[in-house]
Amino acid sequence: MRILITNDDGINATGLQVLHDIATDLAGPDGEVWTVAPAFEQSGVGHCISYTHPMMIARLGERRFAAEGSPADCVLAGLYDVMQHGRPDLVLSGVNRGNNSADNALYSGTLGGAMEAALQGIPAIALSQFLGPEIMQSPDMFEAARVHGPALVRNLWENGVWDDGPYRVFYNVNFPPVLAAGVKGARVTAQGYRSNSFFSVEAHHSPQGRRFLWIKGGPQHEPTAPGTDAAANLEGYISVTPMRADLTAHDVLAELEARLG
């Protein structure tokens, strides 16, 4: 089995090493794990691609490459350059430092990498670690993902729904903000919505007096509806959310057609 891994926290991120261990477990002794990850952190870039400028790619070791681009760029580099003579069977993206539940999924470079793989016809899973006080005080903030990730990813690979449609399914997995012993299990969930948590901007001045705006995130522990990802995470469960890149609001098509005549 051949697996391509990437992330949005950058080639040197701890979560990428955790993901490499998860991928190695799944690939088996005769498998291959290839890494193509951003040279620098790319958090929040979503499904961005470097369409108007080239990116440098460097080989750092055996099957390990860094690219000056987004996670989606890295997947493209993996498919059409690094692994051009043998495509991967699976693409894994993560393990992200911080949750990509609810509305965070829309901004996530971690999901952007998985989405690009799905658009290219490759099965893909994005993995993220929800943070919280218990996690932040631990010497290993990825413990839950490290311990439960291998079995979860194997189960999803072997038993998940993998279609071959034009907008094929990919998966968004979020580990809860607890240590491994506190994980209660896994739940299949819908994407949630945090009604009181939005991105905004906060102004600051540099020592030279210039005014800059920093993007500011909202509260991450806001409850979401029962049966959705963040709600499950805050209850101690791993959330597994099937997604597609199709952005059509299918539920309003018939009503819109009737209104517009």
TrEMBL record:
Annotated Survival protein SurE-like phosphatase/nucleotidase domain residues: 3-195
The cofactor remark states:
Binds 1 divalent metal cation per subunit.
Broad class of the protein's primary localization: cytoplasm
Identify the cofactor(s): a divalent metal cation
What UniProt keywords are attached to this protein's entry?
A: Cytoplasm, Hydrolase, Metal-binding, Nucleotide-binding
| Cellular component, GO, one term | cytoplasm
Q: Which GO terms describe its molecular function?
A: 5'-nucleotidase activity; metal ion binding; nucleotide binding
State one Pfam family annotation: SurE
| InterPro entries attached to this UniProt entry | SurE, SurE-like_Pase/nucleotidase, SurE-like_sf
Reactions listed under catalytic activity: a ribonucleoside 5'-phosphate + H2O = a ribonucleoside + phosphate
Q: Per its record, how is this protein called by name?
A: 5'-nucleotidase SurE
Species in which this protein is naturally found: Pseudothioclava arenosa
